[in-house]
Design a protein that fits this description.
Prepilin-type N-terminal cleavage/methylation domain-containing protein; 8 strands; N_methyl_site; Pilin-like; five-stranded antiparallel sheet; 37% helix; single chain; 2 helices; alpha+beta; transmembrane
Length: 172
């Protein structure tokens, strides 16, 4: 009597195992790619949020304390005159005399210059910035760099009221 001992798998069993494992690997790869894209988008939005938060803070402080309408010499520049001595400048100093702040976008950097002092980089990561004055309201549109979210392609708009100017007019 001859006994056959089965040691191993048949070709059909190996092919089925290969097909099942390939299907599982394809599914895992798809999930990994989806999670990776989600993480990248989340990082882009986080960076955009930080750019917006800081820009809003800097422009709000500057524009709310001015008593005059800013000027826009070109698409990426705004000039804000601060007639009050001791006001906080964009470079965080408090000049003892009235001063002029010039905000400019150069090479994805928002820069600030107080009077004739050297320009300071306030933040990086801006693709575009534009300004518009609408009465006593300044509309600033920011487009952060590397933001690949279609619905945000036109950027974000920050509206800042010229509170110091409005109060000055109300008191006079």
């Amino acid at each position: 009597m001859i006994k056959y001992v089965k040691n191993g798998f048949t070709l059909v069993e190996l092919m089925v195992a290969l097909a099942v494992s390939s299907f599982l690997m394809a599914g895992i790869s798809y999930v990994y790619i989806a999670i990776s894209e989600s993480v990248d988008t989340s990082k882009e939005l986080e960076n955009a949020q930080e750019v917006l938060r800081y820009s809003s803070e800097v422009f709000t402080r500057s524009l709310k304390q001015t008593k005059t309408i800013p000027t826009i010499p070109n698409a990426n520049t705004i000039v804000v005159e601060q007639a009050t001595s001791g006001a906080t400048a964009c470079n965080s100093t408090k000049p003892a005399v009235p001063f002029i702040e010039t905000f400019t976008l150069v090479d994805s950097q928002l820069r600030c210059q107080v009077n004739a002092a050297d320009e300071q980089v306030l933040l990086t990561g801006l693709q575009d910035i534009s300004y518009r004055i609408n009465g006593n309201l300044v509309e600033i549109t920011l487009v952060p760099e590397n933001l690949n979210v279609d619905m945000l392609a036109n950027g974000f708009r920050i509206d800042i009221a010229l509170s110091g100017k409005i109060l000055e007019e109300a008191l006079n």
